[in-house]
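Internal tracking record. Fields below are filled automatically when a chain is submitted to the structure queue. Please do not edit lines marked as system-generated. If the sequence contains nonstandard residues, flag them in the REMARKS field before resubmitting.
Queue: standard
Priority: normal
Entity type: single polypeptide chain
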Amino acid sequence: MSSKRYKKLPENTKELPAENIQNILKLIKSNCTTKFDESVDLSFRINNKQKKNEINLRTIVNLPGGTGKSIKVAVVCEDSKLNEAKEANADLIGGDELIEKIKNNDLNFEKLICTPSMMIKLSKLGKVLGPKGLMPNPKLGTVTNDIKKAVIEAKAGQVEIRNDKDGNIGVSIGKKSFDDEKLVNNYNAIIDSLEKEKSNLTIKGDLIRQAFITSSMGVSYQLKLDKSL
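SYSTEM-GENERATED OUTPUT FOLLOWS
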């Protein structure tokens, strides 16, 4: 059952003509009537069904305006890299002892970064890390010898773009409290990343079929993409 607050929000907004993000942000923010700082979220439906194979997107985007969220980062590395991880303000740092905690399902972190040599040991924990989306991946910059850079970027405002089996992508571009320019810059970073990913794919037609924008507890509006995807 919808709350009294939600019932006061505009109805059938998904049926409105698509608008560009600059025009919609004012509406999104006006619908943020909760007491907390709601997230501003994008939803994309990609052209996932291809004749030869389905499209599987997975990449990371560094948002120039940050996410407004505090991310807990764990680092698994050799002793020689421990200080580097500490200097980057990683939240959990360790070697074999941290791997043992992870093995026992102690997953008190939101992102896991490791060095290539430690990845050999972590790769055996796929059943623990895989379902949580925490397994380090070279493509995502989480398997690297440049631990300092990886940790700083993860904590500064990094999001993952990944489609589900139905071809849907959900990603946040910040908070209601962000000014419009910051949200637009984050949105443009997402669009630029999708354009780059499309160039690496064999795909017929547009990559994005539909796009919507909403807030955590608000209603959804159809989004007109500024660039052809």
